[in-house]
Design brief:
This protein is mainly alpha-helical. The protein has 3 helices and no strands. Helix 1 runs antiparallel to helix 3 and helix 2 crosses helix 3. The radius of gyration is 14 Å and the shape is elongated.
Amino acid sequence: MSKYNELKSFVDGLEDDFSKFFDKGNKAAGTRVRKAMQDLKAIAQDIRVQVQDMKNN
């Protein structure tokens, strides 16, 4: 469950940048959102690998 909590915390932390970009048009916040989405992709891949390993054992 620690991975879930890590994922949830990560996504919750993005709220300000999403708001700044989509509501206010702040371009720097858009850059942070794009980087965060790449980080989220990496976290998701790690979770997928962990689940697959646990499933196969």
